[in-house]
Amino acid sequence: MGSVYWVLAVLLVSAGPGLGRPDLPDLAVVRPESPPSGGPLVVTVTNLGTAPAGAFDIHVLGMPLPSSGLQRAGRHTFGPNDGPGWALWAEPGEEPGTALLRVRWAGGPGFRRGGFEMQLSDLGEYRLSESSFAPPDIVYAGADGAVNCQASGYDADKCLALLLNYAPPQDPLILFRGHTEGQFEPHRVWLGARPALQLPCRVRLSDLLGPSPSAPLGVESVVDGLEPGASMTRSIPLSAPVGQGGAFVVADPANRVAETREGNNVAHVPGMPGVVACQFHARTCFGLSDASMDAQMWRAAASGTDLLVAVDEDWRLLRHSYASTSDFEGDYLQEVRSVGRETLVEHWTELGHSPGFDTPRISDERCYAGERSLEVRFAAAETAAPRELALRWETARDRLHYPLAARVTVSLWVYPEDVPPDACIILRFAFSSQVDGHRDALTYAVGGNGSLRPQGDGPWISLPWTPGQWNHVELPLTDDAERRFTAGTDNAITDVVLSVLTGQQGGRLFLDAIRISAELSGDALDQVRRAWLRHYPNLVTDAAVAAAYYSPQFVLLGGGTEPIEAVPEDQPAHWARATARSASNAGALVLSNPHGAGAGPPDQALGPAAVSWQRAGLYGARLFEISPRSGRPPRLDDDLAFWDSCLAQGLGVVGIGVSGDSTGGESPREGTFVTWVRSPEASLSAVLQSVRAGHAWFGDPLAANGPIEITASPGGFGAGSVVLTDRDWCTLTLNAQGLPPDAELVWVAAGERVAAGRVPTGGGPFAAALDLRIPKRGTAVRAEAYDREGLPLLFSNAITFLRELPAGTDALPEDRGGIALGEWVVHDVQRFAIAQLVPVEGGVDIHGTGLGGGFAVDCGRKGPPASVRAVSEFGVARPLDYEWDASTVRIAGLTDRQVVQIRWHGKPNR
Asked: What's the predicted TM-score (pTM) here?
């Protein structure tokens, strides 16, 4: 298949300088409170690092920061067939109102032939100020507002830089072309939000060039420096009040201070009092994510998140069923093992080999462990050009994804039987994506004399071998990462490639008993994770557990972090135990990913597994995750269809928005939803109490800053309410703010669009009313908002109208139930599960179970009641205290099962 020597050249990444972990500062912005109207913002920055920080600036901005925008030089790579290519990123220019657009070859120096051509069409909004390049590698020619650039792929150090003056953007267009080894593939990249865009790496205009995040709300504050462990506080006057989208405090926006962490340099200042923006399902290097903890925290804080819940998914902290051994005992290069009821397959995939290499094979001629080993043969070649065989270790469910914080070591045995002096084995470990988009990597060279090092590669870790015997090789990944990388252990293994590299001569060698071991797991590793979370005081953080191995798939919020039992034999009983645990801890069981349950596209019936979930009452789940991430089929459409199906059956589950993103993503617009919750504080317990009551909406934090809320009258029932009613009509009111001009607002009833409207071109608050006919089977109604391109913005929770209680249930939800029967309206229900309302002569009886809460009853023109009392299930009656305001009776402090009797005749309360 031709030489694959370039594979190794691309993979060999500099491991960084010297021995000894570097001492670095760590500037952490403490999450500020929203300032009083017209008052200054008090900002505190702490140096959590081990070295002094030099001078840095503090900016207060009035809009969300692009997730990969000007402050952190987020990079976007384009290349043929998703392979190596050209990186494009933007940095702030030295002058206000300018951006520096950079283009660099990102494939490494081993790219033998290549080219790149870019055309930037400014459409009258962007003006080229100057360009810097190094001919002849980069050639520039421009005319009539367009910039044409050409660059060769020979020298990765050459970078094209265009300095642009920019105004509020419209839709600039960048065209890319690249070719490699006879392949040619054009790329057209619109930096606007074009839904037809299909690229390996999607880009939004706001990610790269604007709108400018440097428009300040506060004056620039300069800090001369900060010693390790020291804090400083600045009172920064604001030029305008903090808007409902909040403000963003950025320490060191020019990134002049090299730090251990960059993800805690940004803090969000909430702009809506009593509203908390939540990421309920965040993945980090301790779990399924390809992004580091630092990168995920940066994206969260820069998107306006206030509360983040780091989820241990599929027993990652316990390393349940992780791949740890490759003994080459299976057929060809495949290992099959059984873990519980699962059959897990792991294998080595050949990335390619140069001429002269035989296909690697499993051999019983020589082995160190078991009965077989991997044999690699290579014949002599006519030319002296370096030759290579490359293999990748692959597993299902990313079961090589070890966090380096677990203190990871890899070992193997190698037998170089008859090898030339220049032959060696290369082991390359790639790690998590960092804040600026780069990935650290460790490269080990076992054997050889160093003569075959690819040109331009970074430092290797060289280890010797002795030909003619089994050699034990130890690779202390965590120790080496700490010595070489700024991020150190904020990494997890994302890729393992093993290569055999040789020159002209032939030979053969054997490999066996590859092992991965880790010192920490379970509680010990969780303690490390929690300690790291404390390094991000710009976010309120908590932890949770999830299980996605089996259907149903659930997340357990606020129910403790001890792992859900692995490999349950009786799944209904298993989830019932998890539900009980969440209830006992005031938590919530969250239903996740209906696609695993067989849900199909919206125009098809739900799969049988999904139907069985609904018949089981969602196993007690109170919340349902809804994600915007595209997939097969598209995730958002499926999630909404499943949600509407649950609501139609009276399962008044509350929707929460999550990112669904395990890679960190390039754009929050495509990979992030957050959930806004009306809560008195940002703690997980307080937030869950509010979200269980449905006081939440969700959507894209960079495109809209809400709220979107609906109410139904009579009764003033809000989103999340489940209302038992005998009425045929109701009036619904929609209020939305923070939407872009020309956004579309849509009413959705029983899963169907029933009405729509558009935000005026000038933007501003939006209000609409809808007279809704309630069918005999009941219905659920909610609201959605989309931008002019049809991309999702905001989603309200639903109000569900029932004609009778669903089969199998004996009461309405205790935090969200409501009654509108005849002349009686029961609302503002808190911690009371209504089972029945019975009109009686001279009053009404309300049956239910109190959990320390109560409710309100509209009494019309009846005046204050003569008596209000509770009758226990054992027939014991007692008078109740109540409040009366104009036409409403308010009752609180109800506990246990009872009947609340309200009477307008007879003896008064004593």
From this structure: 0.81
